[in-house]
Amino acid sequence: MYPELFKIGPLTVYSYGLMLGIAFLTASYILTAELKRKKINPNIASPITLLAVIFGIIGAKLVHLLENWIEFLSSPIQMIFSAGGLTFYGGFILATVIILIYLKKNKIPILKVTDAAAPGLILGYGIARIGCHLSGDGDYGVPTDLPWAMCYEKGTYPPSAAFRDFPEIVEKYGVNGVVPDNILVHPAPLYELIISVLLFFLLWKFRKKLTTNGMLFMIYLVLSGTARFFVEFIRINPKVLFNFSEAQIISLVLIIVGITGYIILKRKNH
Fold this sequence. Notes:
The chain contains eleven helices and six strands. The protein is mainly alpha-helical and 270 residues long. It has a two-stranded antiparallel ribbon with strand order 1-2. A two-stranded antiparallel sheet has the order 3-4.
């Protein structure tokens, strides 16, 4: 794992921050190209990206702090300003709400823009997961003996810390009550990268075939939500309701929204 890639004087370049930046730039580039194709002012891609960066990070950090409330109360400053500790869905939801408000206020066609953003969103998500993998920030999965299993002992959140709140894993794999940092686990971020690239090409193929505005974004919600729902089964997030993790519950909501939205749009088009 390489949490820190290199240093330029006093400046440290972190793998997660670099990949997150590349993810936003890639999504912005694709959004700009799609806006041009749809004959919408491509200059709006810059403020949309800026809003996504600012409120995406704020939302991701807020949800992470809420998820780790006890730790936050014990060291609030450290947790607020730490480089890690971002929850994707928190950032996605807050950024989406703010961007929709921006689009409505400026009378920009919302459904056309969301369609234009969909391919870049899924690809950007996959690129950001490369940062999660390189930094070893705890987004990996449960222990496994599969040939492609990986070790995250040099990550920012090694297994000894990541698995400490999972007694069943500690009991099975622990040594003196602690899971060894060199244990091999599912490289879940790489799974999500592969899935995201495949879904990107699928959305890219559909983007010209779907003539009803909003349908591509609804398909994005269903596909991305489904992918995250199933990946969560091997991730180490705690279960909160009906043996589902918080991310799985949000994924189910997005899937329902996507399916419902697609049906409504299809009926309106007939």
